[in-house]
Structure prediction request, 264 residues.
Amino acid sequence: MPYVRNGSVNVYYEVEDGGEPALVFVHGWTANMNFWKEQRRYFSGRNKMLFVDNRGHGKSEKPLEYKYYRFENFVSDLNSVVEDAGLENFVLIGHSFGTMISMKYCVEYPDKILALILIGGGTRIKTLHKFGYPFARVFASLAYNTSSRYVAKLAFGKNAGELREWGWKQAMEYTPSYSAMNVYKTLTKIDLRDAAKKIEKPTLIIVGDEDALLPVSRSKELNRLICNSKLVVVPNAGHCVMLERPDEVNRVMDEFISAISKKV
Prediction:
């Protein structure tokens, strides 16, 4: 499977063959492309799919210095991957931090995108996170195991069961603490409210009603800001709704993608 070099960083991605439109998946903070396993299974053989590991995550390179984790680098990585794979007119699908990358990408490269799907997303994180960053950095450096378990608890709904443990193990295996904290610092600086207003592509917004990291109110804000958007709130699911309630999420995604395809 290929890597693409963007600047001085190698970014890992995988492509599965299938029909049009192509689907491009962008994961969230401390996650990796494995968090799309249920969507990969569902759309396999039907749509061409591209999965990317964001820098600092998964199998992509994990530089030490913060300068490599600025927001524009993630957007640039996505464009490098898309160009290397030769994709255009695709549906861009993001989760959590991946929704922010996807929205910014849509604003900068609107001609490449057919539609957006934003899952558990928002234009910004809570102000409390911004002021809590110095404390979080110290705590994570001293007890990354404990702090990552706390994040995993927030990332899944109350009925997630073994999925929560799986998600935590994925974070521990594929995202080192310095990468996690560098990306967290970037997260505290992002505000995409103005950018969201510029999005004109058909947009599906999905959120779990128990999302504790980017709650329903954040998705409702997206729904208000993005002119051509539809909001779906999935019951009994948390932040990782695409893993917790895959049947419902996949069905809603499939209906949206099918409707968009008929208009092309």
Q: What stands out?
A: The longest helix spans residues 246-263. Residues 127-136 have pLDDT under 50 and may be disordered.
